[in-house]
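Researcher: Next sequence.
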Amino acid sequence: MTDERPAGTLVQRIRASGLSAVSTLACRLPEGPLISLADLAGRVAYRLSPQRAAQARLNLGRIVEYLVASGRAEPRIAAAAADPRKLEALVRSAFRHHARYYLEVMRAPALDERVFGRIDVETPELVEAVLSSDQPSLFVTAHLGPIELPAVFIAKRSGRPVTAPMETLGDPALQRWFERTRGAFGVHIVGLAQARRELLAALRRGEIVGLVADRDITGGGIEVPLFGAPAPLPAGPALLLTEVDVPFHAAGIWRTGRGRYAGRLIEIPVVHEGTRRERITGTLANEARAYEELISRAPEQWTAIFFPIWPDLVAEVASKGPEAEATGGAKTPTDAAEADPPAIEAAAAAAAAAPPTAATESAR
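Model: Next structure:
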């Protein structure tokens, strides 16, 4: 079938060709020196981005304090909660990990079976049971570590494609590059406008759907407790589960060293009792607890910390004057939990199509 979409402007086509060339080069060069280069870029970004560092510092501070209070803090996390210097070390590390993510985006076309041998799966029995099944499944993940790796892992290990939404970019040539490179390892991208219909159809056909759903990008999320404070989450996953009864899991992979990873799968209880609003909110609250479990293992690898997460911290950053730029101009999200069911549905339809990678956010 011929692709009838616009080819893009000359500048857009040149940019996409350049991106493809850089990606090809990154795939062929040794990984070690490239990781060192990415770490250097992250250190430079930390020095040049005080506003983003301020947002990350506030967000990480909340996370480490909550983990200590709940008795779930690893020693390095407890140290960051007690010592501002240790917390700042986490902030610096976050910039390095963010830079490494962009390297991983460039090297994505080179992913193959060898990378799976470098992932220490902490829940092997659950992974085997879920991915060997031919049942439809809904997976969510956070902007954690190598963000795209969970979808690749699921697609390769299950032998089935994963359908995932992505906001359509204004650059058609760049859009094609993302679709082509992700499609090569079994991730089928659908556009935002068609997302809800396509995702429901995939689940009803018995297929796998994956969503990155830890950030309320549309401003219509539902507030649930996240690390001890209300934060809006996209309602899309919970809304889908009011229409189809499928297994629901959170998947996460994080870096543990140079070229080494750890990962786990978490079953998320779906709330079936109560009003539609109560079911959606209850399922989202369970989803948030799963995110906490994953993110607590490597909070500095959660790239969402560079953006507003909790409304009260948005206000706190804004009160600091120039540091308000750290919020990216975002306004406090609306709490759709207080809306009528049709309003929840409208907000969730858009939220279900939240872009799966930070790369798409930066490309807009």
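Model: The CA atoms of residues 52 and 326 lie 5 Å apart. The first strand starts at residue 119 and ends at 121.
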